[in-house]
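REVIEWER CHECKLIST
Item 1: Sequence provided? yes
Item 2: Single chain? yes
Item 3: Sequence as submitted:
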Amino acid sequence: MAKRKADLPPAAAIRALADSEGRLPVKVTPGARVEALEIAGGRLLAKVRAAAEEGKANAAVLNLLAAALGTAPSRLRLLRGATSREKLIGIEAQES
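Item 4: Structure as written out by the authors:
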């Protein structure tokens, strides 16, 4: 059976959750059944299939968020929360 495509909110809605410096708080659920991003209660929730070991879930979150934003994963940085479910991700400003 093929994997289901991840459910992703619009990029503008995700960017609206970031502060003026491009920092985006994210709550992560590793080891989820399906991969998804959702906005609930004014915050971004990320569900990834990857296990929380050796940075696999962190990489999966960055890849999923990059896909939702339509940008490269290299434009995202994990600023805080490498070993926590509560993460702070930096989004680089897009060049015009």
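Item 5: Key structural point noted by reviewer: The longest strand covers residues 23-29.
Item 6: Recommendation: ____
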